[in-house]
Design goal:
globular, alpha/beta, 7-stranded parallel beta sheet, TIM Barrel, 373 residues, binds 2-succinylbenzoate, 2 domains, 4-stranded antiparallel beta sheet, Enolase-like, domain 1, binds magnesium ion
Length: 373
Amino acid sequence: MNAGAIVGVELRRIALDLVTPFRTSFGEQTSRDVLLVAVTVDHDGAVTTGWGECVALSDPHYSPEFVDGAQLVLAEHLVPLARAAPLTAEALHDRLAGVKGHQMAKAALEMALLDAELRHAGRSFGEWLGVTRTTVPSGVSVGIFDETERLLAEVADYLAAGYARIKLKIQPGWDLEQVAAVRSLVGAEAALQVDANTAYTRDDIGHLCALDEFDLLLIEQPLAEDDLLGHVQLARASRTPVCLDESIHSLRIALDAIELGACSIVNIKPGRVGGYLEARRIHDACVTREVAVWCGGMLETGIGRAANVALAALDGFTLPGDISGADRFWQRDIVVDPIVMRDGEVTVPSTPGLGFDLDMDFLDAITTATNTA
Ligand code: OSB
Ligand code: MG
Protein backbone atom coordinates (compact mmCIF):
# COMPACT_ATOMS: atom_id res chain seq x y z
CA MET A 1 0.00 0.00 0.00
CA ASN A 2 1.04 3.64 -0.52
CA ALA A 3 2.91 5.54 2.13
CA GLY A 4 0.82 8.13 3.95
CA ALA A 5 1.70 11.16 6.03
CA ILE A 6 0.31 11.23 9.56
CA VAL A 7 -1.29 14.67 9.91
CA GLY A 8 -3.01 14.19 13.26
CA VAL A 9 -2.93 11.90 16.28
CA GLU A 10 -5.44 11.73 19.11
CA LEU A 11 -4.83 9.73 22.29
CA ARG A 12 -8.18 9.10 23.92
CA ARG A 13 -8.91 7.34 27.21
CA ILE A 14 -12.22 5.66 27.87
CA ALA A 15 -13.72 3.98 30.93
CA LEU A 16 -15.73 0.83 30.35
CA ASP A 17 -17.18 -1.33 33.15
CA LEU A 18 -17.04 -5.12 32.86
CA VAL A 19 -20.39 -6.89 33.21
CA THR A 20 -18.83 -9.00 35.96
CA PRO A 21 -15.44 -8.86 37.72
CA PHE A 22 -12.69 -10.89 35.99
CA ARG A 23 -10.21 -12.41 38.43
CA THR A 24 -6.88 -13.95 37.46
CA SER A 25 -3.81 -15.00 39.44
CA PHE A 26 -2.45 -11.46 38.95
CA GLY A 27 -5.47 -9.48 40.07
CA GLU A 28 -9.09 -8.56 39.55
CA GLN A 29 -10.43 -6.32 36.79
CA THR A 30 -13.81 -4.67 37.32
CA SER A 31 -13.47 -2.07 34.60
CA ARG A 32 -11.13 -1.18 31.77
CA ASP A 33 -9.32 2.12 31.33
CA VAL A 34 -8.57 1.80 27.62
CA LEU A 35 -6.23 3.96 25.55
CA LEU A 36 -7.40 4.45 21.97
CA VAL A 37 -5.23 5.93 19.25
CA ALA A 38 -6.76 7.77 16.30
CA VAL A 39 -4.47 8.72 13.42
CA THR A 40 -5.42 10.93 10.52
CA VAL A 41 -3.43 10.01 7.45
CA ASP A 42 -2.98 11.91 4.19
CA HIS A 43 -2.58 9.63 1.16
CA ASP A 44 -1.93 11.92 -1.83
CA GLY A 45 -4.45 14.47 -0.57
CA ALA A 46 -7.09 11.96 0.57
CA VAL A 47 -7.44 12.14 4.33
CA THR A 48 -8.58 9.10 6.35
CA THR A 49 -8.83 8.43 10.07
CA GLY A 50 -7.97 5.03 11.54
CA TRP A 51 -8.30 3.73 15.08
CA GLY A 52 -6.20 1.43 17.22
CA GLU A 53 -6.59 0.07 20.74
CA CYS A 54 -3.80 -0.33 23.26
CA VAL A 55 -4.24 -3.55 25.25
CA ALA A 56 -2.10 -2.45 28.21
CA LEU A 57 -3.94 -2.83 31.52
CA SER A 58 -4.03 -0.19 34.27
CA ASP A 59 -1.28 -1.78 36.35
CA PRO A 60 1.93 -3.60 35.32
CA HIS A 61 0.74 -6.93 36.77
CA TYR A 62 0.29 -8.92 33.55
CA SER A 63 3.11 -7.27 31.60
CA PRO A 64 5.66 -4.54 32.34
CA GLU A 65 3.54 -2.23 30.18
CA PHE A 66 0.60 -0.35 31.71
CA VAL A 67 -1.75 2.17 30.21
CA ASP A 68 -0.28 5.44 31.56
CA GLY A 69 3.21 4.34 30.52
CA ALA A 70 1.99 3.35 27.06
CA GLN A 71 0.40 6.76 26.56
CA LEU A 72 3.60 8.53 27.57
CA VAL A 73 5.73 6.39 25.25
CA LEU A 74 3.34 6.99 22.38
CA ALA A 75 3.20 10.74 22.89
CA GLU A 76 6.90 11.33 23.49
CA HIS A 77 8.65 8.61 21.50
CA LEU A 78 6.56 6.64 19.02
CA VAL A 79 4.31 9.27 17.46
CA PRO A 80 7.20 11.67 16.73
CA LEU A 81 9.09 8.85 14.94
CA ALA A 82 6.00 7.85 12.97
CA ARG A 83 5.32 11.46 11.98
CA ALA A 84 8.87 12.19 10.83
CA ALA A 85 8.17 11.11 7.24
CA PRO A 86 5.36 9.35 5.28
CA LEU A 87 5.16 5.62 5.84
CA THR A 88 3.02 2.49 5.55
CA ALA A 89 1.87 0.34 8.46
CA GLU A 90 4.29 -2.32 7.24
CA ALA A 91 7.21 0.10 7.56
CA LEU A 92 6.27 1.18 11.08
CA HIS A 93 7.90 -1.80 12.87
CA ASP A 94 11.35 -0.89 11.53
CA ARG A 95 10.75 2.84 12.03
CA LEU A 96 10.09 2.23 15.73
CA ALA A 97 12.87 -0.33 16.25
CA GLY A 98 15.08 2.17 18.10
CA VAL A 99 12.56 2.22 20.95
CA LYS A 100 13.12 -0.91 23.02
CA GLY A 101 10.12 -2.90 24.19
CA HIS A 102 6.73 -1.17 24.56
CA GLN A 103 5.11 -3.65 22.21
CA MET A 104 1.57 -2.77 23.28
CA ALA A 105 2.09 0.92 22.61
CA LYS A 106 3.68 0.13 19.24
CA ALA A 107 0.87 -2.25 18.33
CA ALA A 108 -1.79 0.39 19.03
CA LEU A 109 -0.14 2.84 16.65
CA GLU A 110 0.31 0.17 13.98
CA MET A 111 -3.36 -0.77 14.26
CA ALA A 112 -4.49 2.81 13.78
CA LEU A 113 -2.26 3.24 10.74
CA LEU A 114 -3.38 -0.07 9.26
CA ASP A 115 -7.04 0.79 9.85
CA ALA A 116 -6.56 4.13 8.07
CA GLU A 117 -4.73 2.49 5.14
CA LEU A 118 -7.32 -0.23 4.71
CA ARG A 119 -10.22 2.24 4.93
CA HIS A 120 -8.51 4.43 2.36
CA ALA A 121 -8.03 1.43 0.06
CA GLY A 122 -11.58 0.15 0.72
CA ARG A 123 -10.20 -3.23 1.80
CA SER A 124 -11.02 -5.42 4.78
CA PHE A 125 -8.29 -6.64 7.09
CA GLY A 126 -9.28 -10.25 6.41
CA GLU A 127 -8.93 -9.79 2.67
CA TRP A 128 -5.58 -8.05 3.15
CA LEU A 129 -4.38 -10.97 5.31
CA GLY A 130 -5.64 -13.41 2.68
CA VAL A 131 -7.98 -15.34 4.95
CA THR A 132 -10.58 -17.64 3.43
CA ARG A 133 -12.63 -18.61 6.48
CA THR A 134 -15.72 -16.50 7.17
CA THR A 135 -16.21 -17.62 10.77
CA VAL A 136 -13.86 -18.81 13.51
CA PRO A 137 -14.53 -20.86 16.64
CA SER A 138 -15.07 -18.84 19.79
CA GLY A 139 -13.53 -19.70 23.16
CA VAL A 140 -14.22 -18.07 26.50
CA SER A 141 -11.88 -17.32 29.40
CA VAL A 142 -13.38 -17.94 32.86
CA GLY A 143 -11.99 -16.23 35.95
CA ILE A 144 -11.29 -17.31 39.51
CA PHE A 145 -14.07 -17.20 42.12
CA ASP A 146 -14.34 -17.60 45.88
CA GLU A 147 -16.27 -20.83 45.48
CA THR A 148 -16.16 -23.76 43.10
CA GLU A 149 -19.97 -23.72 42.87
CA ARG A 150 -19.85 -20.27 41.34
CA LEU A 151 -17.26 -21.42 38.79
CA LEU A 152 -19.41 -24.40 37.82
CA ALA A 153 -22.45 -22.16 37.34
CA GLU A 154 -20.47 -19.82 35.07
CA VAL A 155 -19.06 -22.68 33.03
CA ALA A 156 -22.53 -24.22 32.67
CA ASP A 157 -23.84 -20.89 31.33
CA TYR A 158 -21.04 -20.57 28.75
CA LEU A 159 -21.52 -24.15 27.63
CA ALA A 160 -25.25 -23.64 27.27
CA ALA A 161 -24.52 -20.50 25.24
CA GLY A 162 -22.50 -22.70 22.86
CA TYR A 163 -18.87 -21.69 23.42
CA ALA A 164 -16.50 -23.96 21.51
CA ARG A 165 -13.87 -24.04 24.24
CA ILE A 166 -13.57 -23.15 27.91
CA LYS A 167 -10.41 -21.75 29.48
CA LEU A 168 -10.13 -21.74 33.26
CA LYS A 169 -7.88 -19.36 35.13
CA ILE A 170 -5.90 -21.25 37.77
CA GLN A 171 -3.50 -20.46 40.61
CA PRO A 172 -2.09 -22.38 43.59
CA GLY A 173 -5.11 -23.40 45.68
CA TRP A 174 -7.48 -23.04 42.70
CA ASP A 175 -6.46 -25.79 40.33
CA LEU A 176 -6.79 -29.59 40.63
CA GLU A 177 -10.09 -29.63 42.51
CA GLN A 178 -11.67 -27.01 40.25
CA VAL A 179 -10.41 -28.55 37.02
CA ALA A 180 -11.67 -31.98 38.16
CA ALA A 181 -15.10 -30.54 38.98
CA VAL A 182 -15.33 -28.70 35.66
CA ARG A 183 -14.19 -31.75 33.70
CA SER A 184 -16.92 -33.87 35.24
CA LEU A 185 -19.47 -31.13 34.57
CA VAL A 186 -18.58 -30.62 30.90
CA GLY A 187 -17.83 -34.25 30.01
CA ALA A 188 -14.83 -35.93 28.42
CA GLU A 189 -15.32 -34.45 24.95
CA ALA A 190 -15.48 -30.74 25.81
CA ALA A 191 -12.46 -28.62 24.85
CA LEU A 192 -10.94 -27.41 28.12
CA GLN A 193 -7.69 -25.62 28.91
CA VAL A 194 -6.14 -23.69 31.80
CA ASP A 195 -4.15 -20.47 32.21
CA ALA A 196 -1.98 -19.75 35.27
CA ASN A 197 -0.59 -16.34 34.29
CA THR A 198 2.84 -17.22 35.78
CA ALA A 199 1.47 -18.21 39.21
CA TYR A 200 3.67 -21.33 39.70
CA THR A 201 7.38 -22.09 40.07
CA ARG A 202 9.65 -24.96 39.02
CA ASP A 203 8.96 -26.51 42.42
CA ASP A 204 5.36 -27.06 41.30
CA ILE A 205 6.20 -29.21 38.26
CA GLY A 206 5.14 -32.41 40.03
CA HIS A 207 1.90 -30.80 41.14
CA LEU A 208 1.14 -29.50 37.64
CA CYS A 209 1.66 -33.00 36.20
CA ALA A 210 -1.41 -34.04 38.20
CA LEU A 211 -3.44 -32.01 35.66
CA ASP A 212 -2.55 -34.62 33.01
CA GLU A 213 -5.49 -36.84 33.94
CA PHE A 214 -7.98 -34.14 32.88
CA ASP A 215 -7.12 -34.24 29.17
CA LEU A 216 -6.59 -30.53 28.81
CA LEU A 217 -5.90 -29.00 25.41
CA LEU A 218 -3.02 -27.12 27.01
CA ILE A 219 -1.67 -25.35 30.06
CA GLU A 220 -0.91 -21.69 29.42
CA GLN A 221 2.01 -19.86 31.02
CA PRO A 222 2.35 -21.72 34.32
CA LEU A 223 5.79 -20.25 35.17
CA ALA A 224 7.45 -16.85 35.10
CA GLU A 225 7.73 -14.91 31.87
CA ASP A 226 11.52 -15.35 31.76
CA ASP A 227 11.60 -18.98 32.91
CA LEU A 228 12.01 -20.69 29.56
CA LEU A 229 14.09 -23.51 31.06
CA GLY A 230 11.43 -24.17 33.69
CA HIS A 231 8.87 -24.52 30.92
CA VAL A 232 11.19 -26.95 29.11
CA GLN A 233 11.37 -29.03 32.30
CA LEU A 234 7.59 -29.01 32.72
CA ALA A 235 7.01 -29.86 29.06
CA ARG A 236 9.31 -32.89 29.43
CA ALA A 237 7.64 -34.05 32.64
CA SER A 238 3.99 -33.61 31.73
CA ARG A 239 1.66 -34.91 29.01
CA THR A 240 -0.40 -31.71 28.88
CA PRO A 241 0.94 -29.48 26.07
CA VAL A 242 2.63 -26.32 27.36
CA CYS A 243 1.53 -23.04 25.73
CA LEU A 244 3.26 -19.71 26.30
CA ASP A 245 1.58 -16.31 26.57
CA GLU A 246 3.52 -13.75 28.68
CA SER A 247 6.94 -15.09 27.53
CA ILE A 248 6.31 -14.40 23.84
CA HIS A 249 7.19 -10.81 22.89
CA SER A 250 8.52 -11.31 19.40
CA LEU A 251 9.01 -13.74 16.54
CA ARG A 252 12.55 -14.43 17.74
CA ILE A 253 11.48 -15.43 21.25
CA ALA A 254 8.67 -17.55 19.84
CA LEU A 255 11.13 -19.45 17.66
CA ASP A 256 13.60 -19.87 20.52
CA ALA A 257 10.88 -21.15 22.87
CA ILE A 258 9.73 -23.69 20.28
CA GLU A 259 13.24 -24.86 19.44
CA LEU A 260 14.17 -25.21 23.10
CA GLY A 261 11.02 -27.23 23.77
CA ALA A 262 9.59 -24.67 26.20
CA CYS A 263 6.22 -24.83 24.44
CA SER A 264 4.46 -26.78 21.73
CA ILE A 265 1.62 -24.27 21.30
CA VAL A 266 1.75 -20.46 21.09
CA ASN A 267 -0.86 -17.98 22.26
CA ILE A 268 -0.56 -15.09 19.78
CA LYS A 269 -1.64 -11.73 21.18
CA PRO A 270 -0.96 -8.97 18.69
CA GLY A 271 -0.56 -6.33 21.41
CA ARG A 272 2.02 -8.37 23.31
CA VAL A 273 4.20 -8.96 20.24
CA GLY A 274 4.18 -5.37 18.93
CA GLY A 275 1.39 -5.59 16.38
CA TYR A 276 -0.62 -7.60 13.90
CA LEU A 277 2.22 -7.80 11.39
CA GLU A 278 4.58 -9.43 13.90
CA ALA A 279 1.65 -11.63 14.96
CA ARG A 280 1.30 -12.73 11.36
CA ARG A 281 5.01 -13.50 11.11
CA ILE A 282 4.79 -15.65 14.25
CA HIS A 283 1.76 -17.43 12.79
CA ASP A 284 3.60 -18.11 9.54
CA ALA A 285 6.71 -19.42 11.30
CA CYS A 286 4.59 -21.68 13.51
CA VAL A 287 2.76 -23.08 10.47
CA THR A 288 6.14 -23.96 8.92
CA ARG A 289 7.12 -25.78 12.11
CA GLU A 290 3.71 -27.43 12.54
CA VAL A 291 3.19 -25.68 15.86
CA ALA A 292 -0.45 -24.91 16.67
CA VAL A 293 -1.35 -21.31 17.48
CA TRP A 294 -4.45 -19.58 18.80
CA CYS A 295 -5.43 -15.96 19.24
CA GLY A 296 -5.36 -14.66 22.80
CA GLY A 297 -7.41 -11.79 24.19
CA MET A 298 -6.79 -8.82 26.46
CA LEU A 299 -10.35 -7.81 27.33
CA GLU A 300 -10.39 -5.70 24.18
CA THR A 301 -13.25 -3.53 23.03
CA GLY A 302 -14.84 -4.08 19.63
CA ILE A 303 -11.83 -2.42 17.98
CA GLY A 304 -9.27 -4.99 19.06
CA ARG A 305 -11.70 -7.88 18.89
CA ALA A 306 -12.64 -7.16 15.26
CA ALA A 307 -8.99 -7.30 14.25
CA ASN A 308 -8.39 -10.41 16.36
CA VAL A 309 -11.22 -12.28 14.63
CA ALA A 310 -9.74 -11.51 11.19
CA LEU A 311 -6.27 -12.59 12.33
CA ALA A 312 -7.67 -15.79 13.86
CA ALA A 313 -9.14 -16.69 10.47
CA LEU A 314 -5.61 -17.42 9.15
CA ASP A 315 -5.23 -21.16 8.54
CA GLY A 316 -2.63 -21.78 11.24
CA PHE A 317 -5.00 -20.73 14.03
CA THR A 318 -6.17 -24.29 14.54
CA LEU A 319 -7.28 -23.90 18.17
CA PRO A 320 -10.22 -21.72 19.29
CA GLY A 321 -9.15 -18.26 20.44
CA ASP A 322 -10.14 -16.12 23.43
CA ILE A 323 -12.62 -14.38 21.16
CA SER A 324 -15.88 -14.39 23.05
CA GLY A 325 -18.97 -12.40 22.14
CA ALA A 326 -18.86 -8.75 23.20
CA ASP A 327 -21.56 -9.46 25.79
CA ARG A 328 -19.16 -11.67 27.75
CA PHE A 329 -17.40 -8.54 29.00
CA TRP A 330 -19.45 -5.47 28.02
CA GLN A 331 -22.91 -4.17 28.66
CA ARG A 332 -22.46 -1.91 25.67
CA ASP A 333 -19.50 -2.01 23.28
CA ILE A 334 -17.99 1.07 21.62
CA VAL A 335 -18.66 -0.28 18.14
CA VAL A 336 -21.99 -0.33 16.34
CA ASP A 337 -21.54 -3.95 15.28
CA PRO A 338 -20.24 -5.82 18.35
CA ILE A 339 -18.98 -9.39 18.01
CA VAL A 340 -21.77 -11.92 18.43
CA MET A 341 -21.06 -15.56 19.28
CA ARG A 342 -23.49 -17.94 17.61
CA ASP A 343 -23.26 -21.74 17.59
CA GLY A 344 -19.73 -21.49 18.98
CA GLU A 345 -18.50 -19.22 16.20
CA VAL A 346 -17.91 -15.55 15.52
CA THR A 347 -18.03 -13.93 12.08
CA VAL A 348 -14.96 -12.50 10.38
CA PRO A 349 -15.59 -8.81 9.62
CA SER A 350 -15.66 -7.80 5.96
CA THR A 351 -16.00 -4.02 6.12
CA PRO A 352 -13.12 -1.73 5.06
CA GLY A 353 -10.48 -1.23 7.72
CA LEU A 354 -9.86 -3.48 10.70
CA GLY A 355 -13.57 -4.34 10.73
CA PHE A 356 -15.55 -2.08 13.06
CA ASP A 357 -17.44 1.18 13.05
CA LEU A 358 -17.43 3.26 16.19
CA ASP A 359 -20.50 4.32 18.12
CA MET A 360 -19.19 7.89 18.43
CA ASP A 361 -21.95 9.13 20.74
CA PHE A 362 -21.29 6.38 23.24
CA LEU A 363 -17.53 6.76 22.81
CA ASP A 364 -17.75 10.46 23.59
CA ALA A 365 -19.95 9.74 26.60
CA ILE A 366 -17.36 7.40 28.18
CA THR A 367 -14.26 9.38 27.20
CA THR A 368 -12.27 10.45 30.27
CA ALA A 369 -9.44 12.34 28.51
CA THR A 370 -8.39 13.37 25.02
CA ASN A 371 -4.92 14.53 24.04
CA THR A 372 -3.37 15.35 20.70
CA ALA A 373 0.13 14.08 19.99
O1 OSB B 1 -3.69 -14.30 30.17
O2 OSB B 1 -4.94 -14.56 28.50
C1 OSB B 1 -4.63 -13.91 29.49
C2 OSB B 1 -7.09 -11.05 30.00
C3 OSB B 1 -6.24 -10.05 30.39
C4 OSB B 1 -4.91 -10.32 30.51
C5 OSB B 1 -4.42 -11.59 30.25
C6 OSB B 1 -5.27 -12.60 29.84
C7 OSB B 1 -6.63 -12.33 29.75
C8 OSB B 1 -7.63 -13.32 29.42
C9 OSB B 1 -8.90 -12.79 28.82
O3 OSB B 1 -7.55 -14.50 29.66
C10 OSB B 1 -9.17 -13.32 27.50
C11 OSB B 1 -10.15 -12.47 26.74
O4 OSB B 1 -9.86 -11.28 26.48
O5 OSB B 1 -11.19 -13.00 26.34
MG1 MG C 1 -2.84 -15.99 29.23
